[in-house]
């Protein structure tokens, strides 16, 4: 088996890439925990970055939704975020204060499930 590994430097140094997923547009989308941004890279290596509206949101996990948008956790701001393939961002507050959401996943019927450090599992239905 012949394996090739390629690496791409992010535009912002020490941005702390964390979560990663394939978006509905075929590009790779990722969170920048320390950079407070959502990033997008094409298979040819072209980057676009989208700053989050909330300061110190610390985006963590990211997944594609049934609606063609991407959903992500904001560990530092206690929110779930949604970003369109065009970079429009909406944020949703989690009811439990300081829940520190981490991982998330899309269920087959479209709801977003996420884990919280507050010893809870959350569900966002849209």
UniProtKB/TrEMBL annotation:
InterPro entries, sorted: Vgb (IPR051344), WD40/YVTN_repeat-like_dom_sf (IPR015943)
Transmembrane segments: none
Record-level GO cellular component terms: outer membrane-bounded periplasmic space
Pfam name, any one: Vgb_lyase
Signal peptide annotation: none
Top-rank taxon: Bacteria
Protein's UniProt name: Virginiamycin B lyase
């Amino acid at each position: 088996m012949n394996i090739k590994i390629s690496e791409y430097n992010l535009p912002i140094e020490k941005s702390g890439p964390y979560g990663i997923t394939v978006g509905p547009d075929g590009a790779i989308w990722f969170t920048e925990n320390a950079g407070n941004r959502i990033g997008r890279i094409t298979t040819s290596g072209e980057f676009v970055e989208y700053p989050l509206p909330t300061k110190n949101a610390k985006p963590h996990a990211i997944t594609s939704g049934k609606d063609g948008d991407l959903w992500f956790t904001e560990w530092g701001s206690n929110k779930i975020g949604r970003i369109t393939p065009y970079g429009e961002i909406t944020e949703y507050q989690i009811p439990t204060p300081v829940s520190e959401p981490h991982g998330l996943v899309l269920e087959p019927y479209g709801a977003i499930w996420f884990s919280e450090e507050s010893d809870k599992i959350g569900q966002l239905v849209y």
